[in-house]
Specification:
heterodimer, A: alpha+beta, Butyryl-CoA Dehydrogenase, subunit A, domain 3, seven-stranded mixed β-sheet, two-stranded antiparallel ribbon, 14% strand, B: alpha+beta, four-stranded mixed β-sheet, four-stranded antiparallel β-sheet, 11 helices, 8 strands, 48% helix, globular
């Protein structure tokens, strides 16, 4: 076995524990260590993304991605609370009654601290114990660690500026995408295997052309996901934690990722619709990646605003030569 | 400076000094007048002279022996500059490499200098009315002539630039009628040989960049055979497997169009609809994923997933580009509106050429993903 396979085996074994024990082991065994090097690079971010994806594939209710995103942001702003037991992130915030702040929170049931972007554009941190946490009313978010949160503004400490908020949000985008796409890739593999295992009308499902074509497109989404996650991880060398590529990965997870998760269920036929088979975890995570942090519109706006699209300085774009519009003969 | 940066600088400097022939309103893919033809061929020869057309070829045959990174970097600059289709690309990308690999020393000496200089233009003579995606069904027949050499008769179709070409790269059946891929031979064909008739096919774009080619008792000598007699399938497959480079270049080109479109949308600020922004973000993301994916090796049998995805994405991009051009006409230069609309009409070709997307999905499913076996 290669080192990579050994690690996955160790991780999988750990995930067979109950939630609390598994979480403690993830922390103690160093799976959630994500800190930058002196030179500003993050060599462990690819591993972190893999861990997030493996945990998500297992369908476990362990908010690994949220914790990693928050820990990375806290390390970036130099706040020590990143060493806490369990961190969460508020992904969407709105004004509540009597001056309270309401939101959606990606976290465990009882996070030690929660990071949030405040309405004034600063980065805040609040003790989990000061907040009221409840189940999110949208059933799509069931079992993917999204909760409704409510807090008093006075309980929130400001720890960073607008730039820190940018860092925080792109870290969240990255791990939303990593968990979603990891789970989607796993669901896609299961669907491809199922197409050969399951027989109907005297032949394997995979011999039907309509399903073959669908399977190829699902497989391709998996390959594109690898490309985008690698690009996003390699972008974690600047102060903005690879924000452009992270938002791109989020857009992809929420569009093609959702489609692929839907297809993975579809290709399993009736049994894909059962809770027990667990394919819904990939779908819920893909939807979570799409819907949190302002929905698909917000991520789209970030991608359109940030992506480097030139023009290349010093290069003449000959396509800008006007074309002659020929007058029509009278 | 890295070699990639050196080549980028070189390509940028050359491109700024060499405006391409104007490609609009018609003539985006093929010259539409004699003077445009001469201008376009001259531009092509100048690109060759600058060393930008055969970068990956071995040095001994006029190349620079560089790898795919440098080649992609130069291709990207040329796309960003708005370079037109390179009329010599079948020669430099397919025939030249095949002759380097399979040709005799005489064939190499005879053909490679002209391909390297861009002074001979080549066309590919593979597809037939009865053999498109199913290339092994080729029926153009080459039989032995009693005085030596071959006599070739048949019909080829979809032959890009055959109307401009000096030479043709021909696949014909030398084996029994039912010999499928085992009875095929590659030939080089002087397009001025008696019996060769080229007829243009006008496409839905309005242009005629490809053709039918009729071969009526065309005489070929033995030294026209590339590789072994009946060994043509292997020769053709080795050149078709350079498709990854071709798809990579197409994706880079698409990326530069997406970048132009993104600059337009960005410039519109809050005037642009949520729907356009969302659709744009999706194609920005997917084209970048494909650009990265097309540089990676895929599992055996799944090599064409990049081409399949590219062909579909290409359509979505150009539909969106036209939508933006008409929702915000003042913000899009006429030349870009023309390009995108013309390219939209051409997008259908990429879903069919190089193996139709439908057939390629079959192949990937069966050979790559091992479905149904």
């Amino acid at each position: 076995m290669t080192d990579g396979a050994l690690e996955r085996d160790a991780l999988a074994k750990l995930l067979r524990n109950e939630d609390a024990a598994a979480w403690a082991a993830l922390k103690d065994d160093g799976w959630l260590d994500l800190v930058p090097e002196e030179d500003g690079t993050w060599p462990m971010v690819t591993t972190a993304a893999t861990v997030a994806g493996v945990v998500a594939s297992a369908g476990r209710s362990l908010p690994v991605g949220a914790h990693l995103a928050a820990a990375a942001t806290l390390a970036r702003v130099g706040d020590q609370r990143g060493d806490a037991g369990s961190l969460g992130v508020v992904t969407d915030l709105w004004a509540g009654e009597e001056g309270r702040l309401e939101g959606r929170c990606w976290s465990s049931a009882a996070p030690d601290h929660v990071l949030l972007a405040l309405p004034d554009g600063t980065l805040g941190i609040v003790p989990g114990a000061s907040c009221a946490l409840a189940a999110d009313p949208m059933p799509t978010f069931d079992q993917v660690d999204v909760r409704r949160i409510s807090m008093a503004r006075d309980d929130v400490d400001q720890i960073g500026d607008l730039q820190a908020v940018g860092v925080h949000e792109s870290a969240v985008a990255f791990f939303l995408a990593a968990e979603a796409l990891g789970a989607v890739q796993d669901a896609a593999e299961r669907a491809l295997a199922y197409l050969n295992d399951r027989h109907a009308f005297g032949q394997p499902l995979g011999s039907f052309q309509a399903l073959q074509h669908r399977a190829v497109d699902v497989y391709t989404v998996g390959r594109m996901a690898t490309s985008l996650l690698d690009l996003a991880a390699s972008g974690w060398v600047e102060a903005d934690l690879g924000s452009t590529a992270s938002w791109q990965a989020k857009v992809f997870a929420g569009s093609r990722g959702v489609w692929a998760a839907e297809q993975a269920i579809q290709l399993h036929g009736g049994i894909g619709f059962t809770w027990e088979l667990g394919l819904h975890h990939a779908l819920r995570r893909a939807q979570r990646a799409r819907l949190l942090l302002g929905g698909p519109s917000r991520a789209a706006a970030e991608v359109v605003a940030r992506t480097d699209v030139g023009p290349r300085p010093g290069l003449t774009d000959w396509t800008l030569r006007p074309i002659p519009l020929e007058p029509l003969a009278p | 400076m890295s070699t990639v940066a050196e080549w980028e600088a070189r390509a940028l400097a050359w491109s700024n000094e060499h405006p391409p022939p104007l490609g609009a309103p018609a003539g985006s893919r093929t010259p539409v007048s004699a003077s445009q033809r001469e201008e376009w061929l001259a531009w092509t020869r100048e690109m060759h002279a600058a060393g930008l057309a055969t970068m990956e070829w071995p040095v001994e045959w006029g190349g620079a022996g560089v790898g795919v990174e440098e080649t992609r970097a130069v291709a990207r600059i040329l796309h960003e500059a708005g370079a037109p289709h390179v009329l010599s690309s079948i020669g430099t990308g397919m025939v030249g490499p095949a002759i380097i690999k399979f040709g005799t020393p005489e064939q190499q000496a005879r053909h490679l200098p002209g391909i390297a200089a861009g002074t001979t233009i080549w066309t590919q003579l593979f597809s037939e009315p009865g053999a498109g995606s199913d290339l092994a069904a080729v029926r153009t027949k080459a039989t032995r002539h009693p005085d030596g050499g071959w006599v070739v008769s048949g019909q080829k179709v979809w032959n890009t630039y055959a109307h401009l070409a000096d030479w043709g790269y021909l696949i014909a059946r030398t084996g029994a009628p039912d010999s499928r891929h085992r009875g095929l031979t590659m030939f080089v064909l002087d397009m001025t040989t008696p019996g060769v008739t080229v007829q243009g096919i006008r496409e839905i774009t309005g242009d005629a960049d490809f053709n039918e080619v009729f071969l009526d008792d065309v005489r070929l000598s033995d030294d026209a055979v590339v590789g072994a007699v009946d060994g043509g399938w292997g020769v053709s497959m080795s050149t078709l497997s350079d498709e990854r480079t071709v798809v990579g270049s197409l994706v880079l080109w698409l990326q530069t169009e997406v970048d132009r479109l993104t600059r337009v949308v960005r410039g519109l600020g809050s005037d642009v609809s949520d729907g356009i922004t969302t659709a744009l973000a999706e194609v920005v993301t997917e084209v970048r994923a494909l650009a990265d994916l097309s540089g990676r090796e895929q599992i055996a049998g799944a090599e064409t997933i990049g081409k399949i995805a590219y062909a579909d994405l290409n359509i979505r991009v150009h539909q969106l580009a036209m939508d933006v051009s008409c929702a915000h006409p003042g913000a899009v230069p006429d030349a870009w509106a023309h390009r995108w609309s013309d390219s939209y009409l051409y997008t259908r070709a990429y879903t069919i050429s190089g193996g139709s997307n439908e057939i390629l999905r079959n192949v990937v499913a069966k050979r790559g993903l091992r479905l149904g076996s």
